[in-house]
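[recover] target loaded
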């Protein structure tokens, strides 16, 4: 279990997160939503250990990791731009992290992961020969061969559309279930969060506006802020679809 207890963080004297507490069960998928500036990326960086909290604690299975360096936490992240090495092919990107941790996964485990993500026929391709969905899967594989205790995803589907997006969502769910991998996803898309996650965290005013099952977020918003935020984001998404496809999207 990942526990965040009374986390506080401010930048330049401006509070970003204030007394934030929540628990994420092992193997659970949690998406983080909130307005711009609400602290979504800050929360991800605190969990990963890239920035220290001003107060509060971070625990994993009862172990306090608040002061533990990122490389020793056993957490890992897939960034929005995938951060693949363009001079390496897909296989070399996937196996890159094993140079420093050669025992993290056996060759058999790497092959099984490649098969799970449907990457067998793409291993010899350069990064510029891969589609967006294939790059996302390579980035996931590169992270998963290191067997993280917590997987952090920063806008993992923002560059994907349609069938490809649904395929990656299905693979993220399958990975979380197969490896009982605690997964935290930062996204701006409420539909993505509500259809992918076991629970959704909505940030507002530096803290937890609501943390609940998707059905409760939609059916029983905790307050007017949550209700207005969800409706506004869904309307923005609908307007974007209409601008792309016109009246046929109605």
């Amino acid at each position: 279990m990942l526990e965040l207890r009374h986390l506080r963080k401010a930048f330049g004297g401006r509070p970003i997160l204030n007394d934030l507490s929540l628990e994420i069960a092992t193997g659970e998928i949690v998406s983080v939503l909130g307005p711009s500036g609400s602290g979504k990326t800050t929360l991800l960086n605190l969990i990963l250990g890239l920035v220290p909290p001003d107060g509060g604690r971070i625990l994993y299975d009862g172990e306090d990791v608040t002061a533990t360096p990122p490389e020793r936490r056993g957490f890992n992240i897939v960034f929005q731009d995938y951060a693949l090495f363009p001079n390496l092919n897909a296989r070399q990107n996937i196996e890159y992290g094993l140079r420093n941790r050669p025992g993290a996964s056996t060759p058999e485990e790497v092959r099984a992961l490649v098969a799970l993500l449907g990457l067998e026929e793409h291993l010899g391709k350069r990064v510029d020969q891969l589609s967006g969905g294939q790059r996302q899967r390579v980035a996931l594989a590169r992270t998963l061969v290191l067997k993280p205790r917590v997987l952090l995803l920063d806008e993992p589907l923002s560059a994907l559309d349609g069938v490809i997006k649904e395929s990656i969502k299905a693979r993220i769910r399958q990975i979380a279930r197969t490896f009982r991998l605690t997964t935290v996803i930062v996204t701006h898309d409420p539909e993505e969060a509500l259809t992918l996650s076991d629970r959704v965290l909505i940030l507002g005013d530096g803290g937890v506006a609501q943390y609940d099952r998707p059905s409760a977020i939609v059916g029983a918003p905790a307050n007017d802020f949550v209700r207005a935020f969800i409706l506004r984001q869904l309307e923005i998404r609908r307007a974007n679809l209409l601008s792309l496809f016109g009246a046929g999207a109605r």
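[recover] notes: The two ends are 42 Å apart (CA to CA).
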